[in-house]
Design brief:
The protein has no helices and 11 strands. It has 117 residues and is an all-beta fold.
């Protein structure tokens, strides 16, 4: 079973930054699109950003201009950095992997990000 291990969440003050990581041991990592969704209390899970195997990336408007998604295929790890954090960024962030060839999606366990003073 594919495992995605997330890290990097926590409590951050408004205006601060954090970097989330999502790692796996799967050799197919370089073939996957990687991304993050987030889910705030009482809300649906929403896409934040993704990066394809060809390093094409996309950000939703709420984080565009203050976020960077990247990947290191040698380390089989994807990263999401968010700067200028706002209280509305508070959510559980879920890493996902999309294997387009096998038409499979895999999810991380989720990591809590709380932005508060």
């Amino acid at each position: 079973q594919v495992q995605l291990v997330e890290s990097g969440g926590g409590l951050v003050q408004p205006g601060g930054s954090l970097r989330l990581s999502c790692s796996t041991s799967e050799d197919r990592f370089s073939l996957w699109s990687m991304g993050w969704y987030r889910q705030a209390p009482g809300s649906e899970r929403q896409l934040v950003a993704f990066i394809t195997s060809g390093n094409v990336y996309h950000y939703v408007n709420s984080v565009k201009g203050r976020s960077t998604i990247s990947r290191d295929n040698a380390k089989k790890t994807a990263y999401l950095q968010i700067d200028s954090l706002k209280e509305e960024d508070t959510a559980v962030y879920y890493c996902y992997a999309h294997d387009h060839q096998l038409d499979q999606r895999h999810w991380g366990q989720g990591t809590q990000v709380t932005v508060s003073s």
